[in-house]
Design a protein that fits this description.
There is one protein chain. By secondary structure, the chain is mainly beta. The chain contains 2 helices and 17 strands. The chain folds into 2 domains: 157 residues, Glucose Permease (Domain IIA), CATH 2.70.70; 110 residues, Sandwich (Immunoglobulin-like), CATH 2.60.40. It is 9% helix and 34% strand. The strands form 3 sheets. Strands 1, 2, 3, 4, 5, 6, 7, 8 and 9 form a 9-stranded antiparallel β-sheet that branches. Strands 13-10-16-17 form a 4-stranded mixed β-sheet, with no helix packed on it. A 4-stranded antiparallel β-sheet has the order 12-11-14-15, with no helix packed on it. The radius of gyration is 30 Å and the shape is globular.
Length: 342
């Protein structure tokens, strides 16, 4: 009797295991992985190669951070007088790869403005009220030179000034110009469309700010004149060596202590026709920096120098570097009251 029960039980177990194996083969179950506490589970979807668009995608306008209204001057020496020459429904930030005062060692030409990369044929807008005083080719070389580095360009003389200084803005590399010389424009009016004319390797608008006084016309860093996005500020600085000379073409870094994002910065090239602000006397400036805590760092004479700084929104934040004394935070000393009132 026991033998019959044993044989029946053995037959039942073998049959059951065979049935379980068949079900497992027909309906496979993925094992549940055991993850460490700091490990992120892998996605269950099948991974495929990304498909890149043929044109530059434009984000929805609702997703863009608006600019501060102009004119904006939280500090006495701020002068955010201009809006962006590109609508805020696409990238409107100046490119950090080819900033004001940058140059290639193999090229004698220095960059006298900022480049804003946006889709081909996107409208170019007037950054402020004023009168169009130049249109076409030849802004640099004159004579309607079709090989002029600016390509098709527009120059606007603005109806407002900074102290006794007349203000101008330049818009270069356009594919078409929609205004005429002598025409008055308002902030945001379309003056042309983005193109590839002049010295350019991709669609963008070259934007300059120029001031004119008794000493003649001078270019300025547009990042000190363009209104930043709400909640963002500008960092400018003056870097000098231990002997008091400006440090040219020096690389430094700004790292967000909140997100870890790092900005690459290069000081202005050592050329005479790159000018700094009359108050800041900076040799670098970087805009569109979200407010928060940052670390600025630089390698000088084989030694690393670092300083934690705060970027306040809607204003120019300032640092100095003085050779072996390193970095310091704070605005330049105020000029004499008589000079300020002039």
């Amino acid at each position: 009797m026991k033998n019959k029960v044993s044989i029946s039980l053995r037959f039942f177990l073998i049959t059951s295991w065979a049935l379980i194996a068949m079900i497992g083969w027909l309906f496979p179950i993925s094992p549940i992985p055991v993850l460490a506490d700091d490990e992120t589970p892998a996605p269950t979807e099948e991974l495929t190669e990304p498909v890149f668009p043929l044109v530059t995608p434009e984000p929805e306008q609702e997703g863009q951070t608006p600019l501060y209204d102009v004119p904006l001057a939280l500090n006495p020496h701020d002068h955010f007088y201009f809006t962006r020459p590109i609508a805020m429904d696409s990238n409107s930030a100046p490119s950090s790869d080819f900033s004001y005062g940058f140059y290639y060692p193999s090229d004698t030409n220095v960059h006298t403005g900022v480049d804003i990369i946006s889709p081909f044929h996107k409208p170019v807008l007037a950054a402020g009220d004023g009168q169009v005083v130049f249109v076409g080719y030849g802004l640099m070389n004159g004579g309607g030179d079709v090989n002029d580095p600016y390509g098709l360009a527009v120059l606007i003389k603005h109806s407002f000034s900074y102290g006794d200084k007349t203000l101008y803005t330049v818009y270069g590399h356009m594919d078409r110009i929609d205004v005429e010389k002598g025409q008055f424009v308002k902030t945001g009016d379309q003056i042309g469309i983005i193109g590839l004319t002049g010295n350019t390797s991709g669609p963008h608008v070259h934007f300059e700010v120029r001031i004119e006084d008794s000493e003649g016309g001078r270019v300025q860093n547009p990042e000190l004149w363009l209104a930043p996005p709400v909640g963002s500020g500008v960092l400018a600085g003056r870097l000098k060596d231990s002997f008091g000379y400006l440090i040219s073409a020096q690389q430094l870094w700004l790292k967000s202590l909140d997100t870890g994002y790092k900005y690459d910065i290069t000081t202005y090239a050592p050329v005479k026709h790159i000018y700094s602000d009359d108050y800041f006397h900076e040799n670098f400036a970087l805009g569109d920096i979200p407010a928060g805590e940052y670390e600025i760092s630089m390698l000088y004479k084989n030694k690393w120098y670092r300083l934690n700084i705060t970027i306040a929104p809607g204003t120019v934040n300032f640092v100095t570097f003085n050779g072996k004394n390193g970095f310091a935070e704070g605005l330049p000393a105020a000029p004499d009251i008589e000079a300020f009132l002039q």
